């Protein structure tokens, strides 16, 4: 199964190629200098990432032809708004209509939705979020891969199991060859079109070395690269962009500056936000978000977290639960309930601009085996699969018992595709973000 559908280039609008997918046209920024009308391409995140031969495209399109429309129909049915809910919960319906017409929610309105406690109203909220997702993104669901290239980190984030607080865990750093081999397995072996390279703030590997690895990947593989190496500074971001990275995954973790300072010794929210803003200015796609359930965090903070993500031009929202790790200062703080996280995702779908994708994080999946389905049915439309070599995954111990930690990649893919098909989603990136 391929993780994108090839599209046919119909023409150009400035630097954007106009790409046709079964009669639907999307725009994607092309960096392929000799791209021309009539070429087949794969696009991800609004970028044309690679060209494919007409023969290969033909084969894939043949597989997708009927399935594409069948899945859309299943999704449309599953995301219809319940008439009883719409009639009964006028306030939620009103905010949903505002979200559908591109209007903004105030922070008080976001907070109001977060505070809904009546189970039937909550149920309506989740279904309304799913309805908004379907209207804005149709049935597309991004399936990205993540490779954890190093668990070295010099920082002391209070919630993180691979922080410097953890003196017991063996540390690793994949070599350039090991990273290229993992990329090859994901791209050539399994058809991934977008990969996140992630590590702690690893002082032992310079940005120049990271840029060199990205250049080597881009030379050999048609894949969209996101980087998640913590804060690398303006110059670092420039080097990574020049090497070919096009996305940055950097969460601000909390919009509460005081809380941020407490949890991140030696760092400030201001600096983190400046880095995210700079990344956007340079042209990176932004994946950002927060942790929910942090000690000292209020619902007001969470409402502001959602609002702040929108202000940061988020392309994909990553909201994860705080999960206690025994080797950190927050070892005894309980994790939040899955239901609270799902409600937060749903509210984010109401509050964020149409094009924003919402990720079901591995952290959320760690709270419950049902979380992936629940998140996707409450406004989310993105998942990440762990592409890290299996023997290294337990060492990327950011929190205990990570979901899918021991699942071989092929098994993760089979399970993901089965779930997506059962709810009518296509593992594609053809949503408004690609337009
Ligand atoms: S959250 Fe990131 S920067 Fe902080 S300790 Fe963990 S790996 Fe390091």
Structure description:
With 435 residues, the chain is of the alpha/beta class. It folds into 2 domains: 7-76, SH3 type barrels (Roll), CATH 2.30.30; 136-434, Aldolase class I (TIM Barrel, Alpha-Beta Barrel). It has helices spanning 54-78, 83-88, 90-100, 107-114, 119-137, 176-190, 207-220, 233-243, 257-263, 269-282, 299-311, 338-351, 362-367, 371-376, 409-422; strands at 7-13, 16-21, 24-30, 40-44, 47-52, 142-150, 194-199, 224-228, 247-249, 285-288, 291-292, 316-317, 320-321, 357-360, 382-386. An 8-stranded parallel barrel has the order 6-7-8-9-10-12-14-15, surrounded by 4 helices. Strands 1-2-3-5-4 form a 5-stranded mixed β-barrel. The protein has a two-stranded parallel sheet with strand order 11-13. Helix 5 crosses helix 12 and helix 11 crosses helix 12. Residues 431-435 have low confidence and may be disordered. Bound molecules: iron/sulfur cluster.
CATH class (first level) name of the largest domain: Alpha Beta
> Structural class, judged by helices and strands?
alpha/beta
Side-by-side strand order of the widest sheet: 6-7-8-9-10-12-14-15
| Main pleated sheet | 8 strands, parallel, barrel
- Supply the CATH superfamily name of the largest domain: Aldolase class I
**Tally of domains:** 2
Helix and strand run: EEEEEHHHHHEHEHEHEHHEEHEEHEHHEH
Ranges where pLDDT stays below 50 over 5 or more residues in a row are 431-435
- What is the mean pLDDT? 94
What name does the CATH topology of the largest domain carry?
Answer: TIM Barrel
């Amino acid at each position: 199964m391929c993780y994108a559908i090839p599209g046919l280039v119909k023409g150009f609008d400035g630097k954007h190629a106009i790409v046709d997918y079964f009669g639907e046209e999307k725009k994607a920024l092309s960096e392929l200098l000799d791209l021309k009308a009539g070429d087949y391409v794969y696009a991800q995140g609004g970028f044309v990432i690679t060209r494919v031969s007409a023969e290969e495209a033909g084969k894939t399109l043949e597989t997708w032809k009927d399935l594409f429309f069948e899945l859309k129909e299943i999704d449309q049915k599953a995301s219809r708004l319940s008439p009883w809910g719409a009639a009964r919960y006028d306030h939620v319906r009103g905010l949903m209509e505002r979200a559908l017409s591109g209007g903004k929610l105030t922070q008080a309105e976001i907070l109001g939705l977060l505070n809904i406690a009546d189970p039937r109203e909550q149920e309506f909220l989740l279904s309304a979020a799913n309805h908004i997702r379907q209207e804005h993104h149709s049935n597309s669901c991004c399936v990205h891969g993540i490779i954890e290239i190093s668990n070295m980190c010099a920082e002391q984030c209070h919630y993180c199991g691979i922080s410097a607080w953890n003196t017991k865990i063996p540390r690793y750093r994949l070599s350039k060859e090991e990273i290229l081999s993992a990329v090859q397995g994901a791209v050539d072996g399994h058809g991934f079109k977008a990969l996140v390279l992630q590590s702690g703030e690893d002082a032992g590997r310079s940005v120049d070395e990271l840029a060199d690895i990205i250049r080597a990947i881009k030379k050999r593989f048609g894949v969209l690269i996101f980087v998640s190496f913590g804060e690398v500074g303006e110059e670092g971001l420039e080097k990574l962009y020049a090497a070919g990275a096009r996305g940055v995954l950097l969460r601000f973790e909390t919009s509460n500056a005081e809380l941020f300072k407490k949890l991140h010794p030696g760092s400030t929210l201001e600096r983190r936000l400046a880095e995210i803003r700079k990344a956007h200015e340079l042209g990176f796609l932004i994946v950002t978000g927060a942790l929910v359930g942090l000690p000292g965090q209020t619902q007001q903070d969470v409402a502001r977290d959602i609002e702040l993500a929108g202000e940061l031009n988020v392309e994909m929202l990553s909201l994860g639960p705080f999960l206690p790790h025994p080797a950190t200062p927050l070892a005894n703080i309980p994790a939040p309930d899955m239901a609270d996280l799902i409600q937060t995702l749903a509210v984010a779908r109401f509050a964020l601009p149409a094009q924003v994708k919402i990720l079901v994080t591995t952290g959320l999946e760690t709270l419950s085996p049902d979380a992936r389905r629940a998140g996707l049915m409450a406004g989310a439309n993105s998942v990440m699969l762990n592409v890290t070599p299996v023997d290294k995954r337990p060492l990327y111990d950011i929190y205990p018992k990570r979901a899918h930690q021991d699942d071989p990649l092929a098994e993760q893919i089979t399970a993901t595709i089965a779930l997506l098909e059962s709810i009518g989603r296509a593992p594609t990136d053809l949503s408004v973000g690609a337009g």
